[in-house]
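Annotated sample (chain length 65).
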Amino acid sequence: MDGYQVKGKAEILTKGPLYEEAVKISEERARRLGREMTKPKAAIKIKVDEVYSLKPGPTAGEKIC
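Output written by the structure step:
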């Protein structure tokens, strides 16, 4: 069992190149899975400042970077 807590500043994108790339990736995955898909309302861009381990045991809560 492993997990991470990511801390940073998030930005909601509803237009622009990063948003369009997210839409393209979502459409490609839906096609591969043979599913219908509605266009994503937004993409989230995160500037990561810190990452912490959520792994159980002695390293739980330890800052990774």
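Annotation: The longest strand covers residues 43-53.
Annotation: The chain has one helix and two strands.
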